[in-house]
Amino acid sequence: MQKSSFNFAVLPVMFGFFIMGFVDIVGVATSYVKADFAGMDDTVAGLISLSCFLWFLILSIPTGMLMNRIGRKKTVVVSFAITALAMLIPVLKYDFVSVLVAFAMLGIGNTMLQVALNPLVTNVVAPERLTGTMTLGQFIKAVSSFLGPILAAMFAGGAFGWKAIFPVYAVVTMLAMVWLWLSPIQEQLIEKSEITFSRTFSLLKDKYIVLFFVGILVLVGVDVGMGVTFPKLLQERCGLPLEKAGMGNSVYFLARTVGAFLGGIVLMKYSAGKFFAASSCVALVSLVGLIFSQNLTLVLFFVAMFGLGYANLFSIIFSISMQKKPEMTNEVSALLIVGVCGGAVIPPLLGVITDFFGSQGAALVTLALVWIYMVVLIPFIRGVKPSESENI
Question: Which among 53, 71, 95, 294 is most buried, taking Cβ atoms within 10 Å?
Answer without folding.
Answer: 53
